[in-house]
Amino acid sequence: CWELGDAVTCLDKEYEYKGRCCNRCQPGQKLVSDCNETHVSVCTSCESGHYQQSWTKEKHCAPHDICEDNAGLIVKTEGNVTHNTVCQCQAGTHCSDTSCQTCVENQPCQLGFGFVTAKAVDRMTSPCEPCAEGTFSNVSSKTEPCHPWTSCEEKGLAVKVKGTNTSDVICESGRRSSLSVLIPITAAVVTCLMGVFIYCLVHTEVQGCSFLSLTPAPVQIEAGKPGENPDTPEPTEQDENVLPVQETLLRGQPVAQEDGKESR
Predict the structure, then answer these.
(1) Neighbouring-strand partners of residue 11
(2) CB neighbours (10 Å) of residue 96?
(3) Residue 11: which of 25, 23, 26, 19 has the closest Cα?
(4) Coil, strand, or helix at residue 178?
C-alpha cells in the first residue's frame, strides 16, 4: 500500500485498518484478526453450511440457502465454502417470482402455446410460450410443444387453408385446385348458353336465331284432278272466247278455216 501523510491508498485485495493496509481473506475464508505493526491479517476457513465467495475483511461467512421442501424447492447444486447452495423448483412447477422463494404448479399450455423443455428444466418461469409464426398447438397440454406447419410444397400439394397458431395448414392436390377454378367457369358458360337458347325459342323472329330453323319447310302441292298435268297451265277466260281454227288442205297447202264455215 501507499502512504502519503494521513491518506492511505490500499490495493484491491487489501483494506485500510488504523492507518495501514491489511490483507483481505481469500474466498472461502473469514477474518479472525486484523493486522498490526508485527502481524498480518489472520484468516480461517468458513464453517460447514457457510460460504464466502470473494476477498473479504468480514469476520463471518454467509450461511447457505435452505431449499424448503414445503415451498416446493429442491437442491440443484450443493453449496461449499466459496459458493451458495442453488435451489430449484420441483418437476412440474416453476418459480412464483424472480426471487424464487416459492414455487407454483405448471398449468397446461393453452391452445396457441407450446411447452418449452429448456424453460421447464430451468424452472424459473412458466414453461409455456406462444407459438411462433409457422408453428401451432391445437391442444392444451403440459408436455406438447408447438409443431411446425405441414409443408404442402414438399408433398407436391397446394395450400388450401393457411395455418394459424392453433391450426395446421390444410393441403389439397394441384389438380383439384385447378378443377375448383374450371368448374365455376364452365358452369357460368353453360348457364349463358342455356339463357341464349331459351331466349331464341321464345323470340324466333329475332335475327340471329335463324340457326334454330336451318331445315327448309316442305312445299305443299295441292292434289289435282286425275289425269291433269300439274305443269300444264289452265286456260284463261280470254282463251275460251277464241274460236278453234281448223286446218284444211288446198292444193296440198294447209289453209286455216274458222269454225262454222264450209271449205271451198
Answers:
(1) none
(2) 15
(3) 23
(4) helix
The grid cell for 150 is: 405441414
- What is the residue whose three cell numbers read 484468516? 43
pLDDT, tens digit, for every residue of 224-251?
A: 444 455 454 555 444 444 445 444 444 4
Q: Are residues 69 and 58 in the same domain?
A: no
Cβ–Cβ < 8 Å for 245, 258: yes
Asked if the structure places residue 161 within a domain, the reply is no
CATH number, domain containing residue 49:
2.10.50.10
Provide the residue range defining the domain that includes 96.
64-105
92 and 72 in a common domain: yes
Task: Please count the structural domains in the chain.
Answer: 2
Distance between CA atoms of 28 and 32, rounded to whole angstroms? 13
Same domain, 50 and 94: no
Could you tell me the pTM of the whole model? 0.51
Cβ contact 85:64 at 8 Å: yes
**Which positions ≥6 away from 103 have C-beta within 8 Å?**
71, 72, 73, 89, 90, 93, 94, 95, 96, 123
| 9-31: b (≥16 Cβ within 10 Å) or e | ebeeebbeeeebbbbbbeebbbb
User: 23 in a domain, yes or no?
Assistant: yes
Classify residue 89 by burial, with Cβ atoms within 10 Å: 0-12, 13-18, 19+. Answer: buried
Lowest-pLDDT choice from 35-49, 54-68, 110-124, 174-188: 174-188
Give residue 52's Cα distance to chain centre. Answer: 56
57/15 same-domain check:
yes
